[in-house]
Description:
The complex is a heterodimer. Chain A is mainly β.
Amino acid sequence: GENVEQHPSTLSVQEGDSAVIKCTYSDSASNYFPWYKQELGKRPQLIIDIRSNVGEKKDQRIAVTLNKTAKHFSLHITETQPEDSAVYFCAATGYSTLTFGKGTMLLVSP
Amino acid sequence: NAGVTQTPKFQVLKTGQSMTLQCAQDMNHEYMSWYRQDPGMGLRLIHYSVGAGITDQGEVPNGYNVSRSTTEDFPLRLLSAAPSQTSVYFCASSLGGSNNEQFFGPGTRLTVL
C-alpha cells in the first residue's frame, strides 16, 4: 500500500517568513495529492491539491509543487501570518482512499 | 446542505462496552471513510466504502465493524471497547472516481476507561 512521509513534524517561523513542508510517497500509481489544514479541535480542511499531470499550483499565498520522478511534493506558504498556525497534513491517493502523512505543526510568531 | 455530520460529538465508554458512531452525508457521495486521529500519528484509515453494500478494510480495522446499507449513512461499530480505541474519529466522504476531494465531518472524541 501507499506510504507517505512528512517533514518536519514541527516548524516555527516569524510572521512574514516563508514556510515549506515536504512529503514523499511510495506508490507510483498515486495521482492526487491534497493538503489539509487542521486547527485545534476542528476537522481537517482542504487548502490546496494537485494532480499528477501538473507540476505546480498556486492559490494566493499557498503553492504546491510535485516531482513525480522523485515521488515528492511540497507545500509552500509565503508571507506567513499568525492565523496560519495549525497542523498541516499531506496525503496521497490513486483510487478510493487517502493515505496521510503524520502532520506538521506550524507555529507563526508575531 | 449539511455536508458530513457525525454523532455524538463526545462519548465516554467503559472497557468492554459497545457503541455505534453515526455518520451521514447529504451530498450523494459514493465514497465514505472512517479515520482515527491520535497525537503524532496523523489520520489512519479504519474502514471505507465505495458504494452502498460495499465495504473494505483500511490500515487499522481491528475492533471495528462497518456497514453501508444506504448511500447517505456509514456507521462505525465498536464491538468491545478497549482503552487503545481512545481517539478522535472522523468520517469523510467524496464523489469518488477521479474526484478524490474528501469532505470531513466534525469528529467524535471517544474516551475508553
